[in-house]
Fold this protein.
Amino acid sequence: MNTKHHQIVIIGAGTAGITVAAQLLKKDKSLDVALIDPASKHYYQPAWTLVGAGTFNYKKTERDMAGLIPSGATWIQDYVDDIDPDNNKISVRKGDEITYDFLVACPGIQLDHDGIPGLKETLGKNDVCSNYTDPEHTWEVIKNFKGGNALFTQPATPIKCGGAPQKIMYLADDYFQKSGAKDKTNVIFATPGSVIFGTEPFKSTLQKVLERKDISVKYFHKLTKIDGPNKKAYYTITKFHDDPNRLYYNPKKNLGEEIISETEVVIPFDMVHLAPPQSAPDFIKKSKLAHQDGPSKGWLNVNKHTLQHTVYSNVFGLGDSAALPTAKTGAAIRKQAPVVVENLFRLMNKESSMDEGYQGYSSCPLVTGYGKMVLAEFKYDNIRDSDPLITTFIDTGKESYLMWLLKKYGLPFLYWELMLKGRA
């Protein structure tokens, strides 16, 4: 077993890890920065919604990891098995130990296919698709759909890009209109949530989209089992089973539902798009860096403004694995990374005060159809946080073709050429 030491170790070379490393080295090239990540490929996942709707090339979302690691950083291409923050030590799968002065934990999020019975066995077949795993298969399912119940759903766990299960639904509905299948189709959105979106005016805009597209929404519906061969989705109604006004929007009577009990229902489907249950990686969940109990159990325990760990002062966490009460998006990371970088420099300079600059900003580019998008920007407590310069020229709370162009062309450029190079 070899032991290697680095001044700053970053776990994860995804959006957060590469952005933080690039910004650190841009400020000081002499820093000893190491990134731990086993992946040989890096993906721009926000475009997978468009791939799933047949309007973006999957290959353009993929790049070699080796070409993205910032110059001057050490890439340790291995899996993390264990983190020992009491001794500033990380164990990796090949048997080595990595020690550090400062740690940045941003390993992203993992898909827990075992979290819903039947999901692992049926995902990718039986017209069960997911942009989170194979957006090209999603496009095949949508293209071949001829009518019936088109079910779109999501789990009760936190997920990356919480708006993604809606976006592909709106695009699929547009495609059904073009293909002639819409008149023979019930588009259904079943969600464990209580609203279509938490922040105004985006919520009201999306309500109008639901009305225009005649989409049926089922709130407080938690997916508990999926039977692919028989094309049935099982749900538990978590609240308001006796209050249709809270439970349903635009209810339909011809869905063929089976009522098992007051709080259990089965929805038959002819296709289903779902987001699998998700969690922080296992090595985070079992470590002392995670919340040990409560609603955030298993997620990184960091201060929501400084992103510094609440117990280990030389540790920071950001990105999807952090227990932050905001949406898990790349846009959130763009605002989190500079705060982490600033606070690392403060620690290295022996300063006691931390920058509390992260206010929960996140953004959800809500594609509502081909050529239409709403740019939902918000911060903690579901407060709108739209860019004042952009909103001078365009109302980002309304559907816009210019926002669609931003999604398809502008944001990928921002990602590859600015964020990952430490420039944004």
